[in-house]
Amino acid sequence: MSEAALSRIAHLIKVEDDLVKIPTLRQQFTKEKASIDVNLNTTVQLQIDSIMSNMYKLNKSATSLNDIKTSLNKIDMVYEEAITSVPEYDLIRKVTSLNQFLEQTESLRNDIKEFKNFIERLKKMIQKEWDIVSQDLSYPLDNLLLIHFNLTQARNFQEFLLSPSNKFSDDLQSIIEKILMPIKSAIRLFDELLNEIIISITEAIREGNGAMAFKLVKIIEFENNEDLKVSLKEKLKESLEEGVVDDRIDVVTTNYSQYRGAKRNYMKFFYDKLQESLEENFEKCVEHFSSDRMAVYDNLSWLEDELVFVTETISAYFPPHWDITGFIQNVYYNKLHTFTMDLIKLDPSAEELLRILAYDKHYSKFVGSLQPSGANSGEEIAGKSLIGEDLKKVVLDDYLKVIVSKMDEWNDNLINQETHTFLHRDETPPDIFPYHQIIEDEDANDQTITIEIDGDVFVLPDFKTPLSMLKEQADVAADSGYGSILVGVIENWSRCYIKRVMNYKMIITDEFENYMSIYNNDRFIESASNKMRFFKKSPNKPTYDIDNMTTEELSEISKPGLLEYLTALGNTFEINTDRLQDKFLPGYKGKVHSSYQSRIQDAFDDTVTPSTELNAQVIRSIIDIITNDLYPALSTVFTKEWYDDQKLQADNQPNMAQQVLETIIEYMQDLRGYASYDIYSCTFAILLDSFIASYIRIGFQNVLNGKAKKIDPFATKKFKSFSEAVGRDVTLFYGGLEPLFTRKDSSYLLNSLRAIEFLGDLATCEDPMNFIPQMWENEILGSFYYCSVEYIRGICLCRKDMDKTMVNRLIPILEDIQVSYHSNVQPPPQMTGTLNDFYYN
């Protein structure tokens, strides 16, 4: 039983005496139920009848639709028969077209004949309308729409005649311009009428003349829609293929009363004239108080009343997408802003500045109160300051200047301190910093895994100082509540940071040259016929007699610990860059308005490239130092001593590969103990490229210009097999260096060593003119995508059985193969750059 029935029963039976009414109530309920059943059955039957009626109508409609289709087919048949059976059809069509042309020409003749009189009547109508509206703001502009209609017809006619005029002769163009001359004054009069309406619209609405606003809106909306059609037509023409569009007018079919050839921009006209009117009102107020310009702020009640009236009344007469309220507020804001800025330039007193700030706060709050909650335009305007953020915070700007000055002074002192510490590194060892790192590796199934490493790395003694200073100053700036101050602090800190980076780059350059001036091993690889210097040396650097210098004298030129300090420098900037991007950047971006966030982003981003370049210079210097120590051993590559491996073993002396391996292992084991993983892995990968390229380059030089003999591909004597010697070196290098790599990075080691391994086949293969191109395409380019052809040129010239003529024929073939390979094969995801820029002379 429903709650309504229970409620009714409870209402009827309240006391014990009401129980005697139960039979009567039962009869009453039975009658009501019977009545409800009858009504329900009647309603259901009506619904069923309606459904059946609709079904009948639907069937009838379907039958009628089929009849229509049949009739349309008959019409098509009749049309086809009429065209195919009438021999004169083309003639009739041409006659019809000619008749249309004659009628259109007749209409043009009549309209041209009456055009001048029509324009004169239209000008009188416009002038009469202007005379009335300029005197009576309550006039509802009875003839405005008719005037606009007639003027639109005339302008359409004008544009119709002018559109193809560029294809006419000069005389005909002159005639057309003469015919259309009167319309220019009519357009000017109409624009003046619209201008009068626009500047009077506010007062007219105050007088209750809403018709003026409605008719103005109707005209502007019509013109805007027509301009939109013109724009769409122009875009449609641009989207069609060249040569498809024909700009000529079809004078037979075109209704020139509706033709529009260009946009008329009345929406822009409306906003321009409204802006001029508003600006003129404000200028009158300023002129009135020209003797005391500060008094303007005390007499802007009229402006505020105007904004209230616009928001509460005028906005209702205009379409929402016009945003008439926001536009008027912005015009007055711009005028107030300009006026205030001009006052500020006059260096007002502190009292006057306070008055400006007081009105600025009042105006911002006032405009914000006019907007409904969440209105976009209100939020934008309410958030603006009349004097701009910089001048509003002039005192804070002075404070910023003090901060910047102190920061610059601190940065200069820090640079001096860092320079002294680096140059006198023997006095202060690098600091130790516990560094948590997450790296990627591969398991035994070649699946990617992540490994967390907690270890100590070298950093500069004062590596926390720059970021501590940033945090200290930026936190104070953030607490001020002004984003411009925080941004100013961060931007200046970024400039200081970059200045320190540039100083370190100069220090590294000088210190590397000092180191090489006494430890350079170029002499081991310089041949009598081809002097080469692998490391640049400044011409201004003095030459030292290092053989007769003491250890103390040498240390004065290049202090000990250069490699450790270079590593500490690289670690420092890597760690600081990560902290800046991961912690400082999001933290400070979240404390400012979105308008300042991009500047903070740019300030931090500006430090990334210089830091990256500095670390690249650090890594390059470390690699050059290690490679320099390899030169004494590498100087024997491809020589008799290099071939005769067993003689060295008999004398318990390491061969060339073992000496190189021991040197690299010693350096890299030390580096792994105090460098970050990124610095270590990047250094090792580039070291491999540098060392292997040097191995090959020096070997070529020894053969071509030094003490080694050319390679005999068919040598079978003991210790004379080039391919066996190369294979021996590759095996030693891989076996010794592989433990220093992660499983993932060891693939780079293996691929890099192929540059040496390939030499065995290239130097000893039969029929090299056919074999080498195949190997180049099928093996070498697969391992070294951008391999230099100089690699092949060098090994071929080292062969005893190949001369320059054969090599010069071979190289163009290889270059064509490489071009074709690059066009068909995408670069591998992990590039091995060992032979990218290879050279040997």
TrEMBL record:
Read off the InterPro entries from this record.
Answer: EXOC3/Sec6, EXOC3/Sec6_C
- One GO MF term, please? SNARE binding
Does Transport show up as a keyword for this record?
yes
Q: Name one GO biological process term.
A: exocytosis
* A single Gene Ontology CC term: exocyst
Q: Does the keyword Transport apply?
A: yes
Query: From which domain of life does this come?
Result: Eukaryota
List keywords of the entry alphabetically. Exocytosis, Transport
List, alphabetically, the PANTHER family matched.
EXOCYST COMPLEX COMPONENT 3 (PTHR21292:SF1), EXOCYST COMPLEX COMPONENT SEC6-RELATED (PTHR21292)
Q: Which family does it belong to?
A: Belongs to the SEC6 family.
| Name used for this protein in its record | Exocyst complex component Sec6p
The protein's organism comes out as [Candida] railenensis
